[in-house]
Amino acid sequence: MIIGTAGHIDHGKTALIQALTGVAGDRRREEQARGITIDLGYVYADLGDGGLTGFIDVPGHERFVHNMLAGASGLDLALLVVAADDGVMPQTREHLAILELLGIPRLLVALTKADRVDAERLAQVRQDVSALLAAGPFAGAPLYPVASPSGVGIPELRAALLAALGQVRQRNARGGFRLAVDRVFSVAGAGVVVTGTAFAGQVAVGDELILTPRGQRLRVRGLHAQNRAAEIAQAGQRVSLNLAGERLSTDSIARGDWLVAEALHAPTTRIDVELRLLPGEARNLAHWTPVHVHLGAQDLTGRVALLEGDSLAPGAMALAQLVLNAPLHGVHGDRLVLRDQSAQRTLGGARLLDPFAPARHRRTPQRLAQLQALRRGGLEEALPELLAQADGGLDPRLLARQFNRPEGDWQLPADTLRVDTRVGPRLFAAALWQAALERLSEALATFHQEQPDELGPDRDRLRRIAAPELERAVYLALLETALAEGRLQSSGPWLHLPDHRVRLTAAEEGLKARLWPLLTAQRFDPPWTRDLAKSLGQPEAEVRLLLRKLARLGELTQVVRDLFYPQASLEAAAGEALRLEREAGIIRAAAFRDALGIGRKRSIQILECLDRIGFTRRFGDERRVRPDSAWARAAEG
Hints:
By secondary structure, the chain is an alpha+beta fold. The protein contains 19 helices and 32 strands. A six-stranded mixed beta sheet has the order 2-3-1-4-5-6, with helices on both faces. The chain has a six-stranded antiparallel β-barrel with strand order 7-8-14-11-10-15.
């Protein structure tokens, strides 16, 4: 269990921890000289169960609330410390608000300096504290009068803490490891050591972790869990990690960084949250208000983009997006605290819903429905609505990262489809996948009706018509499914419904039979349209019209104006380009020219055509074959 103090300055938090544990707090020279706690102090003690309980002593001075926040995240139980002679003070209220906003599960109250007041004053302070707690989640929390120097009341408080050990919440030990770094130092002979609270997962000696947001890969050389040497540490423990990595120093890591499993490294600057403004605020929170955002030990600045209305009233809750000025690491359910722009006042708190919030369309009904689902519960509770609103499907890798839940641990809705794409799997609601397939067919039907003389659009044009919102890889998977099911057919690069045909007239068939040998005679160097017309003794306009119609039928491809290649010839040229790439790793114009045995100008025209149809991608004066190209498969065949 991890216990943290909270309360006003000079109310006896450090002395109370020493009285409970018999161990002097971790006090720095400046703190000892000034008689106050400035930074986090840590003590570990056996309360009587044979294990070590971690105590975090946080500063009470208003100037050091950011340090208090760094220690308060991840607590199992908070000790709200109120001096009986002073009673409830400003930092008592602010610290209590922070504990509520962070979702700390349990709270006990220690009424310190009880030996300095009479019974009437002690009763009054009891009443004041109970009234303070009454409106929040800690209503009815037990109060324990104590006098730390003399030990009065300490045994009773220690017994209450020991009883609470059996009721500590279970942390997520199955997910990826997450540790919020709150201290960094160097140990002679060992090197860099960091300490922090493990939020989830497990870590063992020899494991590799990612320092986020920086992205550096580090190895765990040794570790301590709850101040004891160990081979494994897990969620819910105070952990010290001795790290090794390239050019690693204490300057490489800072308070607020995270050490996470590789799969969780995904820094983000936009997060969608459920935001609550404290009831005691004097005015509404306006859209785009600048704030300080605290998560774990991290302190960032950013702005609040309200998603429901233009302002938020004191005590109210609403969906919002936090647009941050630096990258943040977080997962669904994390608790954040928001302070004002000057970092002098706590405004409210938030629960993280989606760490990968969109920059556009963030207020659409579809997106708000997804956020409402995320607001209601965890992965299983949210998935049906998330799938129902995701026309482009859901990336299971992002979901695993968003919820820190490995995919094998999920219970998917019965109607979920797993679609494999060229950039990884996607999850779809079966109804949405079928609707997307039908949109392809409907778009082609409309195209055929409006342009009956054309065989059909190519795949990129069909995407623009029927599914512009789909990412390319998902669209290609959808297209492959439609073709496999016979909903569509392809003729060369053209897509059409199975019963759609563009037919040549008898005269056109006769002219085609005469010009086709001329087009194929010099495989990679067919005649221009005007030369074909002259050779056949036909009007140039008539020949051009037929060539364009054959191109629509998928039998020819127009490389440049008035220069048409039979499909087989262009596929053969593509095959030569593919061979060159396999041999040299790149396609160079000179090598392509030599392979085809034609002039440089004509070879460049063919290469530019291959670029346009999506077979190759140009990089300066060189090219590579696109791995997702349908032409690549045709050339291989």
